[in-house]
Amino acid sequence: KQTAIVNPHATFIYITPEKEKITYKRVTEELPKDAKEIKPHPYGIELGQLITMLKYTSANTLQGFLQKDFSRITPQTAQEICNKSKLKTSVKPKQLQDKEIEVLFKSLQEAKIMAPPSNCLSPIGAQLLEKSLMKEIKADFYATTSRSPAVYRGMPFIIEVGIAYGGGIEKESQVRLMRFANRVPLLYQQGACAITEAVTETNWKPYGLQQSSSNLPSGPAIILVHIASVWVPFTNEAKEAIAHYDEIIKEIKLALQECGRKLSIYIHKHIRAAEQKEKISLFEKYIPELANALSNLTDNKKEILQEKLQNL
């Protein structure tokens, strides 16, 4: 079911051990855009990878290697990197010694280089994510957002968040958190995940959900967080939780706050209005008793007092 939510272009058919057939239908006939292949970004490589790239490059000069084998390195940037590392632009990449490669690596990390392109990613999109949530989760309100691309260690990534509120969702328990990486559900190690940290560190009280200390908020809501990236930093080989990178946590929080503001507007407009109406109807129920008590205290006629109270 979770996989169906984050893959709105696909239909899933599940046959249970009891031979029951459950179908999760697609919400769109349009396939996701193909992700484009991009060259490595200098901020996202390690020293060993740089050594390998220098060994197998087809470029004849260091400047040609920097421009051809990396993304976002212009001729001017390549020249600056060579100057900073005190290496000639015409030197052959395969002839560099270990100490020279170390200096080159350090210069690459310190150079000011534009963020990598984001067309290598395949996000779901806020509109399709909302349609998927509406199909699989029965709620009264839905809010979704798809953030602009961001970068960590030279790796582009996009954060997407969805919130379903009300309806048949349980009211008294903690919200249900659904975590995804590249359209795949993360089902285990929730407590060790950066997504969980971002949700618990967000102050949900201004958005209409209850929260005690640094725990998940409580209320009739489901929170969905999806990260799309060319390299998802998992905590271990099991790929069950996302590592705690500051850039990723910051983007998740911003996306949560964006959806939270939409949720807050809905709660104050509908839920608070319904609660106020309920209080008014409760007060109206006791107007005759109140009018009678005031009449005994003030010697005024009960009918006049009751009429005035009803007109308040």
What do you see in this structure?
The chain has 312 residues and is of the alpha+beta class. Helix content is 40%, strand content 15%. The protein is built from 10 helices and 8 strands. It has helices at residues 2-6, 47-56, 62-69, 75-84, 98-110, 126-136, 194-201, 246-285, 287-298, 302-310; strands at residues 12-15, 21-24, 141-146, 150-152, 155-165, 176-181, 184-186, 221-229. Strands 3, 4, 5, 6, 7 and 8 form a 6-stranded mixed sheet that branches. It has a two-stranded antiparallel sheet with strand order 1-2. Helix 3 packs across helix 4 (75-84), helix 7 (194-201) packs across helix 8 (246-285) and helix 9 packs across helix 10. The protein starts with a helix and ends with a helix. The model has no long low-confidence stretch (mean pLDDT 90).
Brief description of this entry?
This protein is 40% helix and 15% strand. The chain is built from 10 helices and 8 strands.
Mean pLDDT: 90
Query: Count of DSSP E strands?
Result: 8
Order of helices and strands: HEEHHHHHEEEEEHEHHH
Q: Pick out the low-confidence regions.
A: none
User: Which percent range fits the helix content?
Assistant: 40-55%
The CA-CA distance between the termini, in Å, is 51 Å
Q: What's the multimeric state?
A: single chain
Rg from alpha-carbon coordinates: 29 Å
Proportion of residues in β-strands:
5-15%
Q: Mind summarizing the main beta sheet?
A: 6 strands, mixed
